[in-house]
Amino acid sequence: MSDLRELYQEIILDHTKRPRNLRKIEVPSHTAIGHNPLCGDRATVYLTVTDGIVTDAAFEGSGCSISTASASMMTEAVKGRSLAEVEALFTRFHDLVTTPPDGSDRTGDPALGKLAVFSGVAEFPMRVKCASLPWHTLHAALSGEGKAQTE
Predict the structure, then answer these.
(1) What are 76-126's pLDDT values in tens digits?
(2) Where are the strands (E) in 36-117, listed by range?
(3) Kind plus residue range of the DSSP H or E element containing 148
(4) Contacts from 10-16 at CB under 8 Å and sequence distance 24+?
(5) Across the chain, what does the average pLDDT equal?
(6) Helices (H) and strands (E) in the chain, counts
(7) Domains in the chain, start-ordered, CATH in brackets?
């Protein structure tokens, strides 16, 4: 196993064992509930948006290590970003985990930063939904849909 892949696994395990922002925001400006009925992953995303900037982000839920790590890293990544930046990050992350690898290095996108650790997820179609559930839930919260589901 390459050193880079081992590092990525360590980052995902760290966010699984010690998820950041695992809490409820008592009075969020945006919230949504996400569910993947195929594997049982669940996520509720809470956001505070002030003047078009995500000033706080948190989540609650249960799921596999990929889902938990994705939610943890997502909440860290969106804090302090404008809604347009969050939308662009959602698109980049979604492309990262859903586009089959073509042999090129997909980890060098500076816009993704640490989120690039999920680049290998595209190789495992059943895990794509795990990684993307928190992001679809974030997207649903910001669009006012309130619910997200991956199947």
Answers:
(1) 999 999 999 999 999 999 999 998 766 565 566 788 999 999 988 888 888
(2) 42-50, 53-62
(3) strand 147-149
(4) 11/69, 11/114, 11/117, 12/65, 12/66, 12/69, 12/117, 12/118, 13/65, 13/69, 15/68, 15/69, 15/72, 15/73, 16/65, 16/68, 16/69, 16/72
(5) 90
(6) 4, 4
(7) 3-144 (3.90.1010.10)
Whole-prediction pTM: 0.91
Q: Residue 41 in contact with residue 60, Cβ under 8 Å?
A: no
Q: What local confidence, expressed as pLDDT, does residue 1 receive?
A: 46
- Report the sign of the C-alpha dihedral through residues 20, 24, 29, 33, in that order: positive
**Tokens (6 digits) for 5:** 């892949």
What lies within 8 Å, CB to CB, of 105 at 6+ separation is none
Distance separating alpha carbons of residues 63 and 52, to the nearest angstrom: 30
